[in-house]
Structure formats: C-alpha cells, structure tokens
Design a protein that fits this description.
Blueprint lengths: L1 H24 L2 E5 L2 E4 H11 L10 H20 L6 H18 L3 H19 L4 E10 L6 H19 L4 H8 L3 H4 L15 H9 L9 E2 L3 E11 L4 H14 L2 H16 L6 H15 L1 H30 L1 H10 L10 E9 L2 H13 L6 H9 L6 E9 L4 H6 L16 E9 L10 H23 L2 E3 L1 H4 L6
Antiparallel strand pairs: 1-2, 1-9, 3-5, 4-5, 6-7, 6-8
Helix pairs in contact: 2-13, 3-13, 4-12, 4-13, 5-10, 12-13, 13-18, 15-16
Amino acid sequence: MKHQSLFLSFIFYLLSLTATAQSSADPVVMKINGKDVTRSEFEYNFNKNNTDGVIDKKSVEEYAELFVNYKLKVEAALDAKLDTLSSYQQEFRSYRDQQIRPLLVTPEAEEAEVRAYYDNMLKQLEGKQLIEPAHIFVRLLQQATPEQQAAAKARIDSINSVLAQGRDFSEVAMQCSEDQGTARRGGVIGWIGPHQLLKELEDAAYALQVGEVSQPLQSTVGWHIIKLMDTKPLEPYDTLAPRIRTFLDARGMKDKIAGTVVDSLVKISGGQKTAEQVLDEESERLAAQDDELKYLIQEYHDGLLLYEICQRQVWEPAAKDTAALENYFKKNKKNYSFEKPTYAGALLQAQDAQVLKQVQKALKKQKNENRWADIVKTQFNKDSVQVRFERRMFTQGDNALVDSLVFKVREGKTRINPRYPATAVVGRLLKKGPKYWYDVNAQVVADYQAMKEQEFVDELRRRYPVVIYKEALATVNKH
C-alpha cells in the first residue's frame, strides 16, 4: 500500500512538472472575465495587426489595451448569446470552412484528379491526333430565302477562287471571314480533338493533310473553307499535368475533393453525423495541430461577434438617432469648420432652360434636401434623363461649373455638356462651416458612433474583470 502511495505521488509530481513546463512555454498574459489569454494568442494578433506597414504602430502595452477592448466586446456578444444565432453560425462556418476544406485534400487525391482528367482527354481522342484547323466562314441562317442562299454560295465560291489563285489563306480569312473570333487570328480555330467542332467541319478537317485547303462545304450555320494548319499527338502526362492542375484549380478542384472527403466521413459514421458536424470535428482536429490555424479560426469567431454586438448596440442605433446626432453636432460644431468656403447643394444640368427652372422651383420648395434626388428622379427623369443631378458639399476647385456659378471663378473656359447645356445650382453657400448636422452627415455619424462605442467599452470595463500580467506580457515576441 505504501509503495502504491509513493507511485501515485510520483505520477502527480510528473504531471505538475508537465503543466508547469507548458505554462512557462505559453504563459497567460491576461485574464478577461475569468478567461485566459495566452501569450501565443496575443502574439498572433499583435504581430498580424501591428506590422511595419501599419501607420499607427503600437507598442505591446498600447496594443494590449486595444486587445482588451476587443475581447470585452466578444464577451458581451457571448453573454447576449449572439453566437447561437443561425445567421452568425452560418457566416462563421462559411469563413472557417474556406480554411478547413482545402486541408482535407491530400496531394495524392489531387494527383488522382489530374491523372483522371488526362486519361479522359486520351480517351476522347479515340486514337486520333490533335489538329489545328483554320476556316473562312460565310454565315447563312437556316430560315434564309433562296436569294440569300444564292448570295452566300456566290460569296464562298468567290473566296474559293481567290484562294485558288494563290492568295494567302490567313490574309483572306482576316478580310473576308464572318467569324470575327477567328478572323483576327487568320481563321485559326486552335488545337482541338474529336467532338469539339460541328461534325461536318470535324470530318473535313481530319480528312485533310497538313497545309491542304478544302473545297467549300456547308454546315448548319453557313459555308466554310477549311485549312489544316498542323497536327500533333497529345503531350505526355508529365508535360501537361501542371497546366491541367492550374485549369482544375480554377474550377474548384480542391473544393470538389473536399466535398468527397466530407461525404465519405458522413458515410463512415453510418449517418450519425451531418456534413456540418464532420467539418466541426475536422476543424477542431486540424486547429489542435496548428496554432496559426487555431488563432485564425478564433479571429473569425471573435471578429464576427464583435461586429454583430457593435452593429446592434452602437453603430446602427447611433446612425438612426437623428435627434442625438443634431445635438452632438451643435455641441461640437467648431470641429466641423471649413478651411474654404463651401457650397452645400446640387449642381443641375438640364436639356433646356425651361426644364431647369421647373427643377429649381421644385427643389427650393422641398426643405428636406435628402429628398431632392427622389424629386428629380420621379418628376423629371421618369421616362428619360432630362436632368443630370449631383448633390454634395462643393469646395472651390472641386467642379469647374460650380466654381463658375457659385464662386465666380472665370479661369479658362468652362466645359458645358452639349446634351445638357442649361446649368444651375440649388443650395447654400457656407463661408465658415456647416449650418446643419446633415451638411457633414458622414463625419458627424462617424464621430458620434466613435463616442458611443467608447462609452460602450467603458461600461464593459466596469462590467467584466480584467487582469493583465505585465511580466508575461513583457515576454511577447515582436516579429
């Protein structure tokens, strides 16, 4: 009994040494809401998002604060159970599976797919060589009248006579063939095998010797004169394999093979697992073998949750709260002053002066400038574009017409569109800054959202405990 006790004590001692070694190899750099963040996870994010190309490069300590904010938003999303939404799960799996599915494909499976494609090419040749035909084409519709049929026959016979006199085939093809796709190449169709052309053309082409030109022959689409440019056997597998692989890759070969692998794993389970469950398991297995993959998948998971929680609780509500936006603008109006006089309004270009006056009158009646575009579209451009409309904040130098109409700039000749010669503006000249918040809508919304997001982060820092282990953080490897 004593020996057994000593043995168990030794086992526990070994386990504690292993745990200590693992801990020191990848220490915890912070704990957020009771959850550990290891150095390797932090390093992955720090080095990925803080490269030399980043304009505002952060120190480890500065980035740690941003990372805490990031993780706090994820915690809020998890508490709100946003990860249980079917829309979230579908989007997350879509991103994750783009990484996982290719990893299920073995080099052997790819090689087999390429080899099968090559073998099928050989089979389709039916023992024949590849040929490179060229043709001169005169189109003839199936419903052609007798007169049209006679005209097409006369034209192909005339071309045939010219060739019989020794004219260069490619020259005549470029000038006379009605197949524009091949005419620019001197009539050359390209390398083909059996069953890749109309039967009449294929039979005639394979019956020719290299350099020989056929007599005019009729197909279901018109008349042709064919020249056999060259022949060759199919290249060996080793020669063609790289090109076949590139061709198949562009057409989703890896995804197709991955689908076969998943289907086989579902079958092996006896139908106890769905394809989705199989991919979940394979994701866990592969991530356990590769930290880079593990943290990339974690990044998808957390990033989508962060977006969802911010969209629901910060960005969308802030963008829709016009009263709050107006109040924010009034309190911070000095932040939106202009360096140059600015014209808040619309540039109008109309087909005639009378229409232009009607548009100006209609827009001046409508105080809500956000509705101006709808008025122009529904009242004046319903059936055709009578008026060109451009609404935004114009500063001097942005638009020559506005410079001339508003800022009275007379430098050079202003170009007038001949289709829309009548020009005018409707709006307000702002000399020092915007009058209304919607004059600088995008900037005000972005600034207000940023303020509300900071308030959200402050509230999360009060809600969730955060501990940063500075000694461990100091060991972060900055690539």
